[in-house]
Structure formats: C-alpha cells, structure tokens
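Schema walk-through. Below, the input block comes first and the output block second. Nothing else is stored per chain. Lengths vary across the set, and this one has 524 residues.
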Amino acid sequence: MREEESLTTDVLIIGCGIAGASAALEAAKSGLRVIVVTKSSTFEESNTYYAQGGIVSLGHDDHPELLKEDIIESGDGINNTEAVDILAKEGKKAVDDILIKELKIPFSRSTPDSLDYTQEAGHSRRRILHIKDETGKTIEERFVNALKKYSNVTLLANHTAVDLLTVPHHFKNLKSYYKKPQCTGAYILDNHTCRVKTIFTHYTILATGGCSAVYLYTSNPRGAIGDGYAMAYRAGARIVNMEYIQFHPTSLFHRDADGFLISETVRGEGARLKTKEGRTFMENYSKKKDLAPRDEVTRAIYEEMTNSNSSYVYLDLVSYAKFDIKKRFPNIYKTCLKYGIDITKEPIPVVPAAHYCCGGVLVDGWGRSSLNGLLAVGEVSCTGVHGANRLASTSLLEGLVWGARASKYIASHFDPITTYKPSDIHDWYYPGKEEEVDPALVNQDWISIRSTMWNYAGIIRTEKRLERARADLDYLSHRVEKFYKETRMETKIVGLKHGIQVAQLITYAAIGNPNSLGSHYILD
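--- output ---
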C-alpha cells in the first residue's frame, strides 16, 4: 500500500448529520485530531438536512418526566429507561448550550421574547422547537460552518466507507488473534479516483444515519441505505431491534415527488386525515385521533387505503388552519405547489413511507458499542431510547445528545491505543483486470431489494411474506457478492453490498420476533 493512501487521526467520524457533526464539534473543542468522512459531495447532505418538523426541548408547562412518559408510551414500553432518562434530563441543556448559545440557531418565536413550541403526534405538550418547516437544514448548515473553522478537523466529502478495520481480521500478524477484537479505523473509497485509502484511528464513531432507502417508498434521501449497520455487523458489533422500522404516515403522493415528507407538525397544528370521499377516520383507530403515534396512524392509513382500494388518503390542513399556511410551512407550500397542489386551497394526497430505524448498533449511554474502539451515534445506533416506535422529533435530539456524549467520553478517557502502520495490515486488493460496473444491473438489483422489502417486510407483515423475503434476499445476496468481487470498486457497488445485507438484517430480525410491537406488526 502506498504511503499517500493511508491517514492517521485521533477520531474518525463516518457521517456528518447532527450526530456526526455534534461529535466532531465536541472532539474538535477538546483538541483531538478529527477526520469526518461522508460519501456525499457536500457535507450538508444527510437525513438531518431534510428534517422539517423540529427538535424536542421542554415547553412552558413541561417536565422531563412528562417527556419520558410520552417516549415510553410511543415505544410500546420496551425502551431502555436509562437511555430515556439521559435524553429527557440532558436534552434541553444540549439544545440551549449547543444549538442556541453556541451555533445561534434562529428558532421560530411566537413573540420577540418567547420561543415558539409546536406539538406533534404522541406528545402531551407543545415542546418542539422549529425553524418554520426547515429546521434540519438550518441546523446542519450551522454545524458544518462551525466545523470548517477548526484546523484540527479534516473534512473528506465524496468518500465512501467500505469496511471497518479491525484487529485481528485485517492484520497480517497471526498472533493478533489472541488479542481482544478492536476497531482501528476503516477502509475508505475515494469516489473520484476509485482508490481505497486506509484511515488508522484510536476511536471510530459511526454516524451514518438510517436505512429506510432499502424500501421502495421512503421519506429518506436515496443514500440512506444503512452502510453503518452492514459494516458494524461484518466487524462483529452487536446489532439489535432491526425489525422496528418506522413508517412515516404522510409523504406526498405524487409520481415525481420521490417521497417528499409532509411533516408531522402539520397534524400537530390541526390538520386532519380524510378519505378521498372527505371522511375523517382516525377517531375510529385511536383516542388520540390524528395525534396518535406514528405506527398507529400508518396502519390506519394502510387499512383505509386497502378497504377503499385507493393509492392514497388526504391530509386536510386548509379546513382547520387558523394561521398563515404559507408563512408557517413555506417549504411544504412551495414544494406541493411545484407539483400542482395548493395547500392553502385543497387537501394534500399522502401515503406512508419508510422513515426511521429504531434499532441498530447497540450502544451504552456514551455511545460505546460491543466492539472495542467503535462508537455509534444517531440513527445507526440503538440506545434503546425509541423502543419499538420513535416519538416524533426525538431523533435530532438523540443525535445531538449522544454525539456530544461520545466525544466527551473519548476526550476524558483518551488513551492512545497502539498505533498501527500500513505494513501491519493486508493491502486492499486491486485485481489486474476490473470489469466496469453495469448500472443496469445495479439498478435492477436495487429494484428487487426495495420491492421485496416493501411488499414482504413492510407496514403489515406475515410469516409467509417474511419467509418469501428471506428466500429472495438470500438468493440475491450471492449474486451481489459475486458482482462485488468481479467489478471495479465504485460507490454504487459498495452501496449495493451494504444494502442487501441491511435488508437481510431487517428481515431476519422480523422473522425472529413473532410479537407485534410498535412499528413491527405481524398479521396473525
């Protein structure tokens, strides 16, 4: 391996949404050398960037115990109570200190002296801070701008994480098998040169986001295919709760919209779900009506669509809004108008879409995984906060809190692990002749994966559907692995390998859990 293809740092962070960015900022302030890697061409591109609704804090008549109760109720009671305690008790301080005081996030205000709190489904109080309907965009941009000011932070865009580097798996010395397994960095593909670099580090933080783009219909960017889950699984880290895939009830139904999300805040501000005939229906499914938890609303919509043989339902805001819709939801208004829908005059056609993974790399209160040297934060991790179903707008807060906590732990316990050299590990193999990646094959494999997941491991699951999914995915995985080994290393083929493995993780977890809980619903 050539010397210029290896880098060394104190902390390697893979991903730059709110979780990765907050981890990077905290590590940078501690004086640690940080490398942040993202496969996108810009650092802003992430699930965080597209988060519309807001971030949980505490409202005027609120209390951490009330937030804790709402989180556990939405999670069907299988939440990790220690993690919920951390989020409920530390969340507001993190928002105040990092977002408001340090990054100067301009949250919307009801008066010049008072922040505006909105409400979303599952919450018993108005406690969600927002910037109209573009909260994540502003937060992400402020974080990235802040990171660019630190000389000890190296930002590598257009670099795809291929594999975690571990002792003993990648090491030449056979005596390393007597050592405790440990993550020591990662193989990273330069998307421009198609060469693989090796980054050696003392601590690796996975912040790669979620995996909902392995489904045919999703509210996530198409890059959210679960790279971190697949790499952590192959490295031997413990993965849990992958069956709990949350579907957002309301994405825009339009052939060209590609899963544009209609924020839950729209219902929090009074909008009602209706059939195509104009009949409200959520009162038939939950005492909380349109503000029921996401899993309940999603299944209600699915049932109404099935019963009426319809492809969508309506979300009616205009009949109930007592405010300026354009001013409160400017992004949703502009986007819907682009597709010929004026939300100030007509209801919005909506359909459920895969949205969030409640499981992931099992971590403790500091983000530490079961693999020494590897931490995980944000959606790729499973702190246990969300249980079987995530409470709205807690994801940004979890990423913020655990991102900062992970780097605080590293800084306070920093003990440089043995520094490894390129000569210690196996060279990345480049065959003499490499086939070009055929995009038609990649696209077809993705269609197979996404269709299988949507039809057989989606909103409503049955034993037979899941068994069909397992059989189809197992067969496809062999073809993908052969494809991966024979073709030139590109981000498309790396993503395909990660995607098929994540689809299998979800399906096998669903098969292994016969109990319907939250977002994992088995039809008997």
